[in-house]
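[step 3/7] inverse_fold.run input=structure_tokens len=68
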């Protein structure tokens, strides 16, 4: 499955759960600078996709493999 088709799969699901985070001043400045430098129009999407990418990567790394 290509990354584009998996993104479409997630995009079709309705988001009904709200998650709130708090940032300190330096974290907020870093986020704002990143969004300005890379012309991010949807910070919520950026944070959600970055978070889920990290979580799924960790799950993949933690998954036991047969030949390791």
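[step 3/7] decode complete -> sequence:
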């Amino acid at each position: 499955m290509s990354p584009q088709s998996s993104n479409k799969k997630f995009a079709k699901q309705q988001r009904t759960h709200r998650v709130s985070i708090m940032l300190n001043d330096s974290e907020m400045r870093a986020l704002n600078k990143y969004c300005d430098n890379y012309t991010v129009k949807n910070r919520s999407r950026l944070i959600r996709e970055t978070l889920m990418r990290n979580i799924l990567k960790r799950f993949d790394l933690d998954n036991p493999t047969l030949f390791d």
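[step 4/7] annotate
Residues 35 and 42 are 9 Å apart (CA to CA).
The chain has a mean pLDDT of 87.
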